[in-house]
Amino acid sequence: MSSRLIVVSNRVAAPDPGNRHTAGGLAVAVKAAMRNRTGVWFGWSGKINDDPAEEPLVQRCNKVDYAVIDLSEADFQEYYNGLANRVLWPILHYRGDLQEYSRADQTGYMRVNRLFAEKLSELIRDDDVIWVHDYHLMPLARELRARGHGNPIGFFLHIPCAPPDIVQTLPHHEDIFGALTYYDLVGFQTERDRDNFAHYLTPMGATLGRNPMTISVDGRQTRLGAFPVGIETAAFARLSRFSMHSRCVEDVRESLQGRKLVIGVDRLDYSKGILHRINAFDRFLDEHPEWRSKVVFLQITPRSRSDIKEYIAIEDEVTAMVGKINGRYGEADWTPLRYINRPYSRTVLAGLYRLADVALVTPLRDGMNLVAKEFVAAQDRADPGVLVLSEFAGASAELDRALIVNPHESEAVAAALKQALEMPLEERQRRHDPMMDHLLEYDIDHWAEEFLSALGETRHRSGLLESLRGLFAVSLGG
Prior knowledge:
It contains 16 helices and 16 strands. By secondary structure, the protein is of the alpha/beta class. It folds into two domains: 5-230 and 444-472, Glycogen Phosphorylase B (Rossmann fold); 233-441, Glycogen Phosphorylase B (Rossmann fold), CATH 3.40.50.2000. β8 and β9 form a beta hairpin.
């Protein structure tokens, strides 16, 4: 019997015939890893239940078992709302000043990781390969090792990894970030993220090796690597062509009345730079009055974590700034900025990306930012739009033909927007084509295969080393 792949994430996107279009980036990535494999996807069901079932609820679809557990209200508040979203999220996005740390939340975070390990432990076979995803579950490998599991275990961080001086603002940071050394392979979106983590471990007595980069701590060896997440490039390109004929996209096209369309798509989060972007659009209209009534900026921003005060404050500020711009520049027949607070399906978004002339993807800090890649994939090669991309998005390392900007410099973003809107066809094609070719080659399937191959090589090399050490010890004893 061939080994199974066990994927562990905070949430599990269990099969739902009535919900075909809402899978997020992590869900799409995990499904790519599971494609054509036998395995288990384990995690939280998304349900709050103070009397949860003893055993995980398992649903089989094709060759994958979707195994989920419920969390109690205390688990949810301390582990998820607390340490994960109010502490680890801001720290890893370089905003240690925004963390709201409490010992109770860290205790809850550790408790839920032990719960995950306890429930998952019952499902693990000796030859399974385990792949853990994201910041919610950093200590999970240590908990599994404590329960005697010697399986290959890899970890992938989907968001950025901040430098050591920011990570160390977390009280007892060694208990969480230091626990990553119990994995055989730890993957990051960019080399900068990987190096930040290596520099964090080095002062703690870790030994750093190269080619590939490895960290040795207390006899444990962990490989570190950069594995930029891709998208389903070819499929998304097909979807964008099909979606141009959808009613929603047709309605948007008609409403533009020949005007240029600039698009931004972000979850409402302080890391996305939405306020900075809108401020840059304000500056653009102020400095280039010839573009008034000729361009529409569509900002799609679904609400998220609306019970956290920082997010409430951002929403209030964004709403006020949108009203100011529309009141200052708008005409009876032209609204310069359309601000939407609800999500759209991937089908509609694909069509809107293809319809847009420019995408403003300007986060203050992002692990990868798949919107940038989806926008490129959705374009018509014969008449592509232009990507304006933050240098602080992980995607900027790959999509280097975009107009790269510093989102903190509103003048530069405004200037890039003007350049993008006025860019001639030949230059647009020259910029787009190599980026599209790159995305086709390094798609989501390539990412999954590259990570799992590296995990296999790491464990094989580690096992070989242990065998050689054993043989050496036997020869000395003999």
